[in-house]
Amino acid sequence: MTKLKIDYSEARDWYVTGDKEKEGYSYPSLPEIAREFNYSLSTLRKKAANEGWLTQRKERLKLKEVISMRKDFMGKAVKLSNVCFNAITAAEFLINKVNEEQNEIQNGTKTYDIHLATKQIWTLKQAVNLIEKSQETLDIIERGEMSPLSNIGYI
Description:
Blueprint: H1 9-17, H2 30-37, H3 41-51, H4 53-107, H5 114-143
């Protein structure tokens, strides 16, 4: 008489992947699975140990965590890129305003004095610094040197 071979694939899948219907994924214990499928707990434990169910579950949870972390990071990288582009646009606006003032001085509609020159120099220096930092940050993101584990505390 041939023994009936039990298919543990559904039990294994439930143990490894968890219950998707429950909020936040619920991961059952082996005794819960044994009760649900009416399996012998000792046989189920041996089967799980031999096939490495716990290792598979841990790898899956670790992968889900990495994927979640990368999604969060990519959202932050996109936001950071937008901030950099906005900073470059703001710097260009400041440079254009200084150019407009210079044109007004050349046309004689605005008087030149040392305070205005100092303000313009300071504004141009800040604008250039803003562009350089933004471009440097964009380059780092583009080259992939900034990762989810990078320290981006200077933002």
